Structures are given as structure tokens and as C-alpha cells.
Amino acid sequence: MRYVFYITDNGVTAYNNDVSITKGAAQHFEWTDVALIDEYLSALPENVEAEIVLDLVDEDLYFEWAPKVHPWEKGAIAERRKQRINVDTVALSEVHWTNNTRTSEDGRKEELILSATVTDSFKLKSFLSNLEEAQVVIKNIHSKAFLLEQFFAKKVRPYLKLTRQDLKKAFLLVTHQSENIFRQTFFYDGELRLSRLVELDKDFDDMDSAIQALVDETKMAITYVYNQRIIPYEHPIGYVFLDAEQTILDSVLGKCREEGLIHENWDENDYFVGAASFRQIMPDGINCGQSHSPCYSMQSVVDFIFTDRPSGFYHTPYVKKINLLLNGSRVFTSINILVFLIGLYYVLITGIDTLLSWQKQAMLEQKIAEHQAEKSRLQEMVKLQDDAQKIKASVEFSESILKLKVNRLISFDINALSEVFANHSNIQLSTIDWKTLDRFDSRRNQIDIKAWVFPFYETYHNPVKWVDEFVAELKTIPGIEMVELQKEPLNRKLSQSLAINSEMKDVQALPFTVTLRVKDVEPK
Q: What is the pTM assigned to this prediction?
């Protein structure tokens, strides 16, 4: 729960943002009700948050043009000025550089300084001490004048559809404080330059008399602005009236024109006028949003504090300490959130890397399976059957071939070919074909040899060397016209290597093909 203590010269009004408890009402205490105030403060929850609004007659705002200095020099100058004005009779004081600059008549660059003081006429220091003793967390102390400046910029300006450039124009903001109290706040060049409370007579016979009295007070404020040379004489001035009821607003602007507050010769682009009720501006406020609750300037700015959390104006050591602790807590929380986000990012990245590793492993396993399937498919396709019995049968067949007397037919010594195979233990014969070239009785013959070179251990150096030596020895056979290596064992796809059974042990082998051409001779 949050509280707002609205302080006036007559007393203090306590608001909180719990609608179920307040129901639009607030608790008011006169300054003479010391016992009731102490009892109320003692009943507050421990470490409850609160903000203070000062709406006082004895708040003095003093503006002074000072030589423009460097930014790092402003703090020391403001602190020295604050020490000079902070006397025993002053409850609160503040010195601000307004960032409003000008060039003086003698060419010196100057900047506007604001000095604000609140007189301790009703023991304000004592009330602030009581809040501190009750362990109330005071986050901000607002000046009503500067709180209205923020309220106008964030709430009134959008409602009246004014531009940001309009805030630079001179205008007077008149707000209804209570039944017979108004506050006049003058702005020029985007800065607050004057603010004062006006109390009208309660005994007016009718509404017209009250409006006339308000216009007369407005005339006095404008005359003071011109006389103090805050703006040039007859410089256009805009007017904005904010009230609780629409009855005064309907006729007050017309009355200003009748009384000459708005000159006929002013350019409409140099000023603006507007009027609105606080309920229209804050329709959803805790106080102004309830029809049975009054909605003057007091209630509207309290709702504004609850919803928008505007910055404070005055700073006591207790408020500074609280804000320092709160800022430290925010920094600590931000660091924890940052560490958490970094940890979350690390976990996320690690999880993604792990997932990618799993996917890569699954893809690798899939490729291995595909490799094995391809190998099995090739083995099934070739159907290389070279077990011991078939090797024995092949040898017996070769021996029977060698016994044939084919030398007379092709003038070729088959025994020499057999010896070549015997000299190369790394070469295994697969098939051997003889065919006659050209016509049937041609004297040109060709021998096609398909064989395997082994063992193959995923390196081609030795298999290539063994095949080259085998081809070279074939060329030395008598009667050979040409030896050509048709298919080399150089297929780089390892998946096409096959396992053969040699001496009861499976080894990898590579296929190759050699073509021999026998010299043309007369048949015998």
C-alpha cells in the first residue's frame, strides 16, 4: 500500500491507493490535532511507502540570472547557495539550475537559477521527523507548483491537444484547489516562473461574483508578470483554467476576453486558451474516478502520483538515504537479472550445442548404416564366391587347361602365363576369356583377364605397385603383342571394395582388368 500526505497551511490529508479501504475518502487532520496525527502514524504498517505534497502559502520561489558556468561547477555553486538560504526558520530548501539561458545586454551568457524555501511556520520539521520515527519510507517530497508543471505536461497537454512547442509559450495555469482557494502558476519558455495561492471570499452571493473575483485576481497576476519584466509588456499570454465543476469553466474564458486579459490584436499562433475539469483529465483516478468523491486539484495530483510516479522536488537527508538504498536495490536486482540472463543464455547455447551434437551423431550413425547397407548390396550383387573348395576347383581347372596343347592353335605358351600368376601372390585370377578378333578364322587373338589385387588396407600404394609389376611381367611373355590395363584398381569409393577369403581369412581386395593381344602368326 502507498500513501500520499497532502500538506497545507491548515493541516495534513492522508490518502492511500487501496480503493477497498478509502472508497474515495481521505483522512484529514488539523495541525492542532497532534495526538490524532501521532495515533494515525503509529498505526501505519512498518516500512510503508509514502510521498509528501507541499501546498503552502509560505513557499517562496526566487529566480535569478547567474553567469553561465561549466556543468561540473554547477553542483558546488548550488550547494553554496543552499547553505546561505538554509536558516533556522526554513524547513526545506532547494537550489536548481533551470537550463534556461540568455545573453545579457552587455553580452554575458547567463543561466536561470531557482531557489525555493519552505518556512517552518507550523512545525513541518517536526512532522517529517515523526514520519521518520514511524519508519515511513518517504520516497519523494513534492512542491505543488512543480508537481502541477509535471501534471500539465503529462496529463493536461495531451487532453487539450497542445503541442510541445505550446509549452514554450507564455501562459497562466489557474487550478481550483478547494471551494474558495485557487493557485495561479505562470510558465514562460518552458519554465515555471511564478506560483501563488489565491483565497476568494466565501460569502459571494452568486457564481458570477465568484468568477469576477477570480478574473480580478488573474489581472493582478498578469500585472505583476509585466511589472517584474518576466516577459515584455503586452506580450501574448495564454490561459488554462482547471476546475472541479464545469459551471465556472463555461464562462471564465469569455470573461477574460471581456476584461481585456486577451487582446484582440494578438496573433492566435502566439497564445492558446483552454479549460477542462479534473474529472475529464483523470477519469480513472482512485479519487477523481468516483462520483461521490470531490475532485479538485488536490485529489487529481494525488491520483497522478499514484499512477505516474513523478519525481520529487525537495530532498532531505532521510529521503536521500532512502533513494540511495532503493537505487542500490534496483542495481542489485538488475545485476541478478543480468546474471540470470547470462546463465540462461549459457544453458540455452549449451543445450543447442548438445542437440546439434546429438543430431550429428544420429546423422553419422545413419551414414554408417547406409555404408554397411551399400557394402552388403554390392557384395550381394557381385556374389563373389571364393571359398576354399572353389579355389581348389579353379586350380584343378587351370591345371587341366595347361595340359592342353593350344600352342599349335594360337602360337602362345599358356604355361608362361600360369607362371606369371604364380610369381605374384597378391594377384588372384577371377576370369580369363579368349576370343578371336575379326572373322572366325582370323589369326588375331585376344585374352581378357579379370583379377583381384589384395590385401587392401585403405591405401592404394601397394595394390597399384603389385598390379604394375604384374602387367610389366605379362609384357615379357613370348608372343605377346600388347598388354593393356583396361580397368585400374583405383576406384576411390571405399564402399566398392569387397572382402574375399584368402587362406581362411577375409581381406579387402580391388578388381582390375588386363587385355592381352597375341601376335599374328600362321596357324600350325
A: 0.62
